[in-house]
Q: What sequence folds into this?
């Protein structure tokens, strides 16, 4: 068995998700940085690990390569069941996965670096235009997400109950991204409260972009 | 216990995914159509079911409401284990989930109706511009997806082995969407072959947009 390797980038919010999950599971791993803006993830050596050339990619101790941040988190949850990232009951698991996917399938992809770059190159978007675009998709999903979290009886200190899990992982990484585009968080007191509760835990705080070895 | 209800829209590819999953699991359900272009999904009655006002949403026989198509598919897989939508081994499960997420987190969200509408309203994109945008994101992910499927030893008649699952569900729904924007599928022989194999099964064929009661 070799050491676990995480191919990632400090500022990538999908990498951030996986770093939190690895910390929650107590997995010690080697950090391999790929600088997205320098195109390092298009290196032939890295394409042999992940043909998509995207981060994150996890190389498990048995050599299994896993890509896509949510697939990596579920893989970790299956390999190391404690502490669980998902609750036990199917309806509860679905609630947590749905919250995670609201962020991972609705906000993040539309605001990804390559999409923002295409807005610039194809439609001449400037910094202000790109920031407007980014904020539009955050608000479109954060408004119902705030309502869902604020009103649901199973929302606790975290998105679901009193222990952090997959939904919190996605929430924290998204809120960190929001700060780069000056998203007004005042309409989202529940999301902000949960984010703050997470950041009190070292598993979340230690995974922050600013604390990574490739941070600028 | 009441009957299962699927809130959906014939042309929505995320609804299409869930219809396939329900068929594969042999679940008989009530079909409730919400016409996205007419804004029916913003009805107060529907917002009580899904505060996001998006389709699909599944109301299970015990009253549990599940949103987000991949969360719904995983919920179905946990409630009705046979036939499985995911393989048994964690590394294999991760491979299938990653393929599903390449489509569900990279292609579909960027090409969603509301994003295309925003391209029109904010950047004056015309039909040709919208189609170019759509095809760009398909090709960006289908090129590595084709390579991954064509070269991986566990690719079989379907994305993973000889039985259809979560990855095939996403693949078929995406290929159907591609046809609406004239995506050239000739660079993707493996994806096309798997899609054709799926469409030979009634679970997939019966879930097609054209066969739904609200089809136009």
A:
């Amino acid at each position: 068995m070799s050491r676990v390797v995480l191919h990632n980038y400090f500022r990538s919010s999908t990498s951030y998700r996986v770093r939190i999950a690895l910390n929650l599971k107590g997995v010690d791993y080697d950090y391999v940085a790929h600088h997205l803006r320098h195109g390092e993830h298009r290196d032939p050596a890295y394409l042999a690990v992940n043909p998509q050339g995207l981060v994150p990619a996890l190389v498990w101790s048995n050599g299994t390569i896993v890509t896509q941040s949510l697939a990596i988190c579920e893989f970790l949850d299956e390999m190391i069941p404690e502490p669980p990232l998902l609750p036990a009951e199917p309806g509860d698991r679905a609630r947590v996965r749905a919250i995670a996917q609201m962020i991972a399938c609705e906000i993040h992809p539309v605001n990804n670096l390559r999409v923002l770059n295409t807005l610039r190159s194809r439609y001449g978007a400037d910094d202000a235009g790109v920031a407007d675009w980014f904020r539009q998709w955050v608000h479109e999903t954060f408004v119902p997400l705030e309502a869902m979290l604020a009103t649901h009886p199973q929302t606790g200190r975290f998105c679901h109950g009193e222990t952090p899990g997959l939904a919190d992982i996605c929430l924290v990484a998204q809120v960190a991204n929001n700060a780069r585009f000056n998203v007004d968080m005042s309409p989202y007191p529940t999301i902000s409260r949960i984010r703050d509760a997470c950041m009190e835990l070292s598993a979340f705080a230690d995974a922050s972009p600013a604390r990574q070895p490739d941070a600028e």
Notes: Chain B touches chain A through 48 residues (CB under 8 Å). Residues 147 and 178 of chain B are 19 Å apart (CA to CA). Chain B has two domains: 4-83, 90-203.
